[in-house]
Amino acid sequence: MDVDRQTLETARRSLHGVAELVLAGPQYRQSGTIRLRIARGGFGTVQDPDLRVNGTELVAGDREIPLNGTTCRELAAAVGIDAGGAEDLYKNGSGVGLDEVLGVDAQAVHYIAECFVRGHEALTRLAPDSTPVLWPEHFDVGVTLDEVNYGVSLGDDYLDEPYAYAGPWNTRQGSFWNAPFGAARPMQQLPDVADLHDFFVQARDRAAADDPRHP
Fold first, then answer.
1. Which of 79, 106, 133 is the endpoint of a domain?
2. How many Cα atoms sit within 13 Å of 73 on the Cβ side?
3. Does residue 40 have a pLDDT over 90?
4. Residue 148 is part of which domain span?
5. Residue 93 falls inside a structural domain
6. Which of 98, 156, 164, 215 could join 73 via S-S bond, C-beta 3.0 to 4.6 A?
7. 51: number of CA atoms within 13 Å, CB side?
């Protein structure tokens, strides 16, 4: 990762805001779902309105609108929709305001998109019958398999950098489980799809073998 943490955090927060306020919220009001999908270069809606983020731009049909230096309200207005999240579904989200100016560094966005694509490919290998979902609340891509959540987060209060995780619904005992919710590994330690897939497989096997953690 050749981008400093602050630049990465600013880009992550800005993209999270766009995902939540420009894509997922309007999609929920129009089509009844907040689920988003991973795409090359970024992410997009799964139903109407048909929108996606590709690199540092919002794409709507043949229009490409730069993200950097604008706001979610302005982006939404540019494509003819009203910005806003799905407030009745969850309380915690990006924290980005409708009029907050977005800061989207191209190098940081490239790294974020690469983490998401790597995660999507590894999750698809792990669970070929499931479709990985990008959830706008926490801005992570994941699947659930046999009561274990697997995914890639771009960073949060637990770890301020992109990381892979496995979270059993009932937490397990053992040295593999190094996080309060299960197991986590920084994406920098999992540099390719095979490494990431291996982590998920190991988590699946440990979840099946290890005893639940007692309260």
1. 106
2. 6
3. no
4. 112-209
5. yes
6. 98
7. 29
For the segment 189-207, the average pLDDT, to the nearest whole number, is 97
Cα 75 to Cα 80: distance, rounded to the nearest angstrom? 9
The answer to whether residues 69 and 75 touch, using CB atoms and an 8 Å cutoff, is no
Domain end (from 90, 106, 122): 106
- pLDDT one-digit tens code per residue, 114-159: 999 999 999 999 999 999 999 999 999 999 999 999 999 999 889 9
Q: For the residues 37-43, what does the mean pLDDT come to?
A: 94
pLDDT at residue 2 is higher than 80:
no
Q: How many domains does the chain have?
A: 2
Name the CA radius of gyration of the chain, rounded: 17
Look-up: residue for tokens 């974020």? 112
Same domain, 60 and 122: no
